[in-house]
Amino acid sequence: MKGSIVDRLDKVLNKTIDNKKVFGSIVDIESTDGEFSWIKSAGNMNTDTQYAIASITKMYTTAVIIKLIEQGRLTLSHTMDKFFSKEYLAGLHIYKDKEYSSTITILQLLSHTTGLPDSTTEKNKNGKTYFDEVFEKDNELTFEKALQRTKTLRSHFINGTKGKAFYSDINFDLLGEIAKIITHKELKDIYNEFIIQPLELENTFLCETTSVFAPIYLNEKPLNRPLTVASAGASGGIISTAQDTMKFLKAFYTGKLFKETYFPILYQWNRIQWFPLEYGVGMMRCKMSRLMSPFFPAPEIIGHSGSTGTFAFYCPAKNLFITGTINQINKQPFPLIYLLLNCFD
């Protein structure tokens, strides 16, 4: 039985490489009990290739924040004015001429319910997004620059409005700064202490401007963007492998990083701007009905994807974890994820 599954998995992954958008891919799939394990690469990537995991980093940041809460150094209800002066925050969140910046909570940052705009994907006064600029050349966006850029954009709703969420990198950039303020440590040292060292992730690190990792593809063009990835920080700056990401993902969902009593807090889903994705606390969910899905059956998956074609999800219905990348900005990984999961039917 396992052999037939492996054959199907191999076939699906190999077909992914079209040399038009997908030139390399890595996938790691493991069962919750560890009895099934399959890792495979195709195209120009190897199973141990280090790649930018992009927004999967947000789950690492979430684990850090929840651990700080567990240690009694932070609460979900703490507001921004506990960490930053009102002068510093002024103009960050203005909605219908009223300022809300200081009232944003830790929970709202974790769940993208702040209403803050996204400085990376929304157009500035010149009609360009940060991603547009990055496609042209490697471009650093420091936290201070991202904060100022956010202040030039319009907020989407009052923070904490019931049922409202808008995915924005600045939410997790702010969480990273808060973690640094609380611990009096740099972000890379925080990840090392809370996650990388305890889990013995030998191929995982926070990107720096001199870091080397697999080029990211935009259609047929490979992009080397160390400045861009290094400046992503707490919202998207980690470099890792599929195996290390698997170790992290399983630890996240099995109580090895923080107590399982915090899990109910994570599952508070709201729609974000990319249908059918929803966001909880530090993680996303893809759940499609039979009528919606071209990949039926399309079971619920929870975890995170990244803008570079990365993915790290848990599928409760199949008791499977899946991590990896298609290493392409201009293509979603969800079709591959579901085709692979459906090999287990």
TrEMBL record:
Domain of life: Bacteria
Residues of the Beta-lactamase-related domain: 33-328
Pfam family, one: Beta-lactamase
UniProt KW Hydrolase keyword: yes
InterPro entries from the UniProt entry: Beta-lactam-related, Beta-lactam/transpept-like, Diverse_Enzym_Activities
Entry keyword set: Hydrolase
Protein name: Beta-lactamase-related domain-containing protein
Organism: Clostridium malenominatum
Lineage: Bacteria, Bacillati, Bacillota, Clostridia, Eubacteriales
